[in-house]
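Annex B, item 7. Sequence and structure tokens for protein A, then protein B.
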Amino acid sequence: MLPPHTRAQWVDDRLREEILLGRLQPGERVAVERLASDWGVSATPIRESLRRLAGEGLVTLLPQRGARVSSVDAQLAADIYSVRITLEPMALRQSMLAAVDDHSAFADEVGIARDQLLGPHASAVDVYRDHRRFHRVLLSRCPNRVLIEQIESLTDRARLFQILGSAPLRGGSHRNEHATIAAHVISRDVDGAVEALTSHLMLTLDVVRRMVESRDNN
């Protein structure tokens, strides 16, 4: 039984989750007929979804050979983070300014998302989901939906780099950075929150750029 929203949206959500959680690995061929059988749908909405996800950069369509999950190398990851550094702080500023009249509820949501992210996790998948939720909550009041859609797409593509095992690991610094961002948001410090988010993204970009330089020098 499909959930009570459109079949196309359900398939889009399910296929995106399979990719972003690493159940379908970067470079792996998408077995449309198998997925259709497993999900109890026809192959048609899956093929339509693949075309939409190809437009987002998550899937690569191959003439006469179906589709494969896209791969993201270090250079492309660096390019993605460079754009995110421009867009996400802008969206956070808009989100916080739009939440002025409803700051208490917004602050509560940010605090809950922070606690979930910084709390214990049973798996890497749970960490990913809570990390994604935290950043979505930060931007949840941004009124510019086009801006949010662009950020979501870039975040998903950066996720492919993480799935490949190439993502930089910065340990406890990540926890401190997220806690700092949340603290500024909860205290209504717009400039501080924007600066903290920018710094968070720049630190990751710096690590990815060093990976690019190391690869080019080998």
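Protein B:
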Amino acid sequence: MVASPHPLPSLHPLVWRGYGGLPLAASASSPEAPPAVLFAHGVGQTRQAWSRSMQQLAAQGIASAAWDMRGHGQSGRNAPGERYEVQQFIEDALAVRRALPAAPVLVGASMGGLVGLAAQARGAGFSALVLVDVTPKWELAGMQRILAFMGAHPEGFEDFEHAAREIAAYLPHRRSRKSPADLAHLLVRGEDGRLRWHWDPRLLQDLADSDRHQDELADAARRIEVPVLLVSGGRSDLVSAETIAHFRSLVPHAEHVCLPHATHMVAGDNNDAFTRSILSFLGHRPHAASPTG
């Protein structure tokens, strides 16, 4: 087990500036040490998706950081009338990388992985890439299922229990149901008293045709020379044996780890195994952690 009996270190909030000066809410495991690992979440998630892994890495002496992508969580949103474009997310990643004094390993899930891949091809200078259940070519049915869930409740939820039931129906393999504390960073209460997802609803329409970028992402993958790890979920409906084979033909030096019981939500389904795979990729041997703060 990566986890230790000691209390896990707390995370520290900060703010970066993305493309056009947009504020990007972030968290770091250390207020002083530059992050050796930089986490980028998937569409519809927030930086809190990585909190457990960040704390476990910190317990092993590895500093990390994560940010809310534009239009998500506590980060800024595009101005009214300004579309969300894939290029903006890539520029944000480049801006975040420029703000860091040393080259981190970029760990990106789904959209975050693709953004990191494209940014690296643009000269971001990450020291390595970990792609979490995403490849330049993906299964369209899986993507459509994700977007359908995201857009299924435009009227919001009556309360946290209502939201927890819907999430449980979407992720029936999860043994435990989300608590109000788990959902606090994912839902925002509107003036009508109902709870709605934290993301800008315009994201769904503006990014709905993201599959048109698959050829560009394949070209970007061919230019990646740094070490690469693909962590896939054995029960994923977004990444398949075919898309993995395609990816490995583009990046022959890439390593691949499959977590057999995980779905597309790899880090949430099996966080300990996911974090162990990162530690192994980093060449780090977990040790008995001691409190660091």
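Comment on protein B: The first helix runs from residue 51 to 59.
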